Amino acid sequence: MLSTQEQTLQQVVRKARAGRTTLPGKNADRGVDLAGAYQIQAATGRDRPLKGFKFGLISAAKQAQMGISTPLYGCIYADMIHSSPVALSDFIQPRLEPEIAIQLERDIAPNALPGDTQRAIGGFVLGIDILDSIWANYKFTAPEVVADNTSGGGFVLGPTLFGSLPGGNLRLYLNGQFQTEGPVAALGDPVQKLQWLAGQVGGLQAGQVIFLGSPAASIPAAAGTLELVDDAGHVLIVKLTG
Amino acid sequence: MVDQKINELAQRLDNAWENRRPIAPLRDSDGLADVIDSYAIQTRWTEMRLERGETIIGRKIGLTSKAVQQQMGVDEPDYGTLWGSRYFAAAHGRAEVPVDLFLQPRIEGEIAFLMGRDVRGPHVTPQEVLAATEAVALSAEIVDSRIEDWRIKLVDTVADNASYGGFSIGAWDHKLTEIDLRLLGLLITKNGEPAAQGIGAAALGHPALAVAWLANKLSSFDITLKAGDIVLSGAVAPTLPAVAGDVFTLEMLGQPPLTVMFT
User: What is the pTM of this model?
Assistant: First the structure.
């Protein structure tokens, strides 16, 4: 059951998402804490098929700025998974992040051991996280962004499933021009992350996809050709339309 | 055709190359009809460029697909020379190509050979070619025509250095000399969308057969295919037009991609 303040914030988020409008964030007086924000997040997506989760705010520096000490997570619903071409007009203020996602082939219980968690990993894929937020210019408190599904917008998955986490860097190019890059090592240990997440959400299911978060700063989305490449030469190409 | 005429037509093609202004088909303007004359013009043009510091870094084979041969009314390929001034090195699999260098550029996906030993015809076989090959790579060839609106027949394109424009090469891989190149697939994505695809067999049935044809053809001009030569063995996918801003990515199974940006 959501409190009155939580219901109020849920309505605010719902209305802005439906109308594709932005609102000023960074309001610390909403009377909703992080646990309440996750309840709003779960309640808001209850009627949509769940396909996985995303990590947000994985860098310790950004966590400190937000006054938190763990990453945040958001839900990936089936209707958020896209394939090329992707229409940017479906989003409010889309931004792009280069990521790696884990495809699960077995369930992970909330208290799973590391070996079981490792065996649940079906493989790794390149992924584009298309961020979106109702909070103007992505200025928000931790409860605000969590209530808004941790800036979940859309997700695109790469064409190849890898048996292990690729090394080196992930790089994003838009219309042939280099945009941003970050080291895969910054994503941390996948097994630890899955165990933590399984504990937070009451277990993960076979078939779900888990976006591990971005090792690089996000970039504003614009129409054109988007390329995500890693050092091994894997590539994910997405056409973004206006 | 007399030497003076050969010279004049080579000069005309060179002017068109330098000024980026296309010319009328030579078969129309000058009655060029014999492909022997066309190869003489091509050879003369290359000589003129070498005198000004151009380098030869290999050869290209054209007209290797049945469809293109039928369209041109010919039953054999043709070849041209890869001039070093138009080799676009790919740093980390990415090459930038200034579109202003060309008249009416198009891009083709090809399988490139790096020769490890000299090969001299006649009677060279594809197996001989493979044994003499150091490495294979995917390649983006930029074809271009000095003939207006690409209104070419065999005699025009041969004189025009087989419509050479330039090229870039992906990572060389020795292992590719040991696979069945007929079945090697190539996908070209243009501006984020899959735009053309094909397999090695599109080049004369087998890319190494195209290279063998080249070695044999060159020997009729007393030329040896040399160790260190790069050979572009012919388009394996449909040709795509290119304009400034276009981004092409060429992919082959097991190989890092090659991205070509027209600026």
Answer: 0.84
